[in-house]
Design a protein that fits this description.
By secondary structure, the chain is of the alpha/beta class. It contains twelve helices and nine strands. The strands form two sheets. Strands 5-4-3-6-7-8 form a six-stranded mixed sheet, sandwiched between helices. α6 packs parallel to α11, α8 runs parallel beside α9 and α9 packs parallel to α10. The longest helix has 20 residues. About 2% of the residues have low confidence.
């Protein structure tokens, strides 16, 4: 008697790949594209700082499609139903039509994050772009002779007014203030806080240092110490004094050599009518002792050694003109060029991409959740 044949093993047919949801793709990507076209329509110039990152977008999109359309159906549960053919004839509801919406949102998020990684930027050509900053230290003489009235109302007050105007005309430069008499010290370090600088300048009075001497070399030395660690490409010291160096432990020539080493340019201004023959060598203020002769040649030497310019200001108007000339010279020394200004746009893509990922996660965990 023949033995019954064992039933042939049945093989489960491979699950078909899910169709690409073209309608959902169009309903998400087309509005996004239109929105970005409207958002960027007034952008002047456009470029990617890292265009190579765009090559990652197709790879990421392919991986998402493979995981969602090819590999995804094989991981889903299958329910056997005796009347499956009749169920197939039923019209799909809204939820069924939106079943692939999380996948489409993930694709859109991947594309936007990829564009953000490429760093989209606006580009605008500027006619005059400053390429160099200037650090300036003003070394101001506050010795007793600065109370002379040949500059109205006094030499010190006239200097303060002119320095105030000078600072206001240099809004983008760091400026510091050093004061010196018999000794020297930093009154205001290098700063962009010009409001504080001007307030401390206005409060400056004679007597804050010993005024029985003029230590020009020390004043330059302290100013150089403020500039020693500066990373500015241009460094300048403006020395405003009315006397000759007769105090301190650093000679002006030695300080000028230090300035040469640090590539600091020094401008010197000799303030006041210091001609001893014009007033008999005596101070115009009876309360002050006889004024010592000045040494304009020394100031000329300091300036010439460092590439600066020496100036003489015998009255208030001349003092203003000298500072104006320094302003003009500083503007010529500042590098200007036609340049390109860049504005970052990556946030507009990155934030929207993250928002789409949040929405996708919320849908997968709620109404469009799939079991198992």
């Amino acid at each position: 008697m023949a033995e019954p044949k064992a039933p042939a093993p049945t093989s489960t047919p491979p699950r078909p790949r899910a169709p690409i949801p073209y309608a959902l793709l169009a309903s998400v990507f087309v509005p996004l594209a239109v929105a970005y076209l409207v958002l960027l329509r007034n952008v002047e110039g456009f470029r990617f700082a890292h265009p190579g990152a765009l090559a990652l977008v197709p790879i990421a999109v392919a991986l998402v499609l493979w995981a969602g359309l090819a590999r995804g159906p094989g991981r889903r549960g299958v329910f056997v139903h005796s009347r499956a053919s009749e169920l197939g004839l039923q019209r799909r509801g809204l939820v069924a039509r939106l079943a692939d919406l999380p996948l489409v949102l993930r694709l859109a998020a991947v594309v936007l994050v990829g564009v953000a990684l490429a760093r989209p930027q606006t580009t605008r050509v500027a006619d005059d772009v400053e390429l160099e900053g200037i650090d300036i230290v003003i070394a101001l003489d506050v010795s007793g002779s600065m109370s002379e009235t040949d500059l109205q109302p006094t030499r010190l007050d006239a200097a303060k007014l002119v320095i105030d105007d000078f600072v206001r005309r240099r809004p983008s430069d760091r400026i510091g203030l050093v004061v010196f008499g018999r000794e020297a010290y930093t009154h205001v370090p290098l700063t962009l806080d010009h409001g504080t600088l001007l307030r401390m300048l206005a409060e400056l009075r004679l007597g804050i240092v010993d005024g029985h001497g003029t230590a020009i070399g020390n004043g330059i030395g302290v100013a150089l110490n403020r500039l020693r660690h500066s990373d500015a490409r241009s460094k300048v010291i403006i020395v405003l004094t009315d006397g000759e160096n007769n105090a301190g432990n650093i000679s002006p020539e030695q300080a000028a050599r230090f300035a040469q080493t640090l590539k600091v340019k020094i401008y010197t201004i000799l303030a006041g009518d210091n001609d001893p023959e014009a007033n008999g060598g005596a101070s115009t203020n009876p309360g002050l002792p006889q004024r010592n002769p000045v040494n304009p040649k020394l100031l000329e030497q300091i300036a010439s050694m460092t590439g600066g310019t020496p100036y003489l200001a015998t009255d208030t108007l001349a003092l203003k003109e000298r500072f104006q000339k320094i302003l003009e010279d500083l503007e010529k020394s500042r590098l200007h060029d036609r340049g390109v200004l860049f504005g970052e746009l990556y946030r507009r893509f990155l934030f929207v991409g993250f928002a789409l990922l949040v929405v996708e996660t919320a849908l997968r965990l709620t109404r469009l959740r799939r079991l198992p």
